[in-house]
Amino acid sequence: MNYDPHSELTDPARPNSELWRLAAGLMMGVLVYYGLNWAIFALVALGAGDEAYMNFMQVVREGETPLAVLVQLYSFGCLGAAVMIVTAHMHNRPARGLLGPLPRAVRDFTRVFVGLALLYAVVTLLPPWTPAHDLKLNLPVTAWLMMLPLAIPAVLVQVGSEELLFRGYLQQQLGARFANPLAWIGLPSLLFGALHFAPGVYGENALLIALWAALFGVAAADLTARSGSLGPAIGLHLFNNLGAILVTALPGPMSGLALFVVEHGPQAAEMLRRTIPVDFAMLLVSWLTARLALRR
After folding, report:
1. At a CB cut-off of 8 Å and minimum separation 6, what does 110 contact?
2. Is the pTM of this model over 0.85?
């Protein structure tokens, strides 16, 4: 494993890499994140009135309309802002350093994203040519296309903010402190997986979904270390979430922007169990494709 480029991300973090700073930074980040969200939604409540605000928040929580999902996705910008504030004020380093060298990040993002697009184009052309799920149209095609100029940046805000936290702040601060990849790859990935553990949504398959998310975190962390930038991880994450949020989604929360929804809900345990092995296999192939793209 050639992780030498990772030092370009971790070296700026070394002067202020004490574990107490990391713990305090995480607590500060939580407070800033919720504080920013509270301030924004308080302004909405002030302008809309109590009853309209409560109705609006109910729609947002359900996540079954385009507006609701857009609000959810763009609200992740508060997470990204919190990470940047913590990095600058708790660790005395420029927040832009979390991304790595910008030209490299853009180049490697593009390589990974294009590589994954080619991979999925090939997979789509291969048999079987019948979908694994029963799909139904969720939005009229014209309406869906009109939403894309708002929806694609919204997904980028979501994945970019998550990558700033997990493969940026956490991975780099732990990497500055510990040489062993088990610490700076393993711990953020375990946390990433744990935050995707949702028994109320996925039922008995919740643990498998969380495991997939943790392995996704490992793949993204590995690509970050090999590249020396967040570009590949953002490319991998964006491509995955564009498909899961904008193309084919499970009914329920976060389905409002999808062109299609699966006929069965996320708690249809047997259906999920049949498709999860394919998801694990595609994650492996996607990671290998991204690695190949980075070596071009």
Report:
1. 231, 235
2. yes
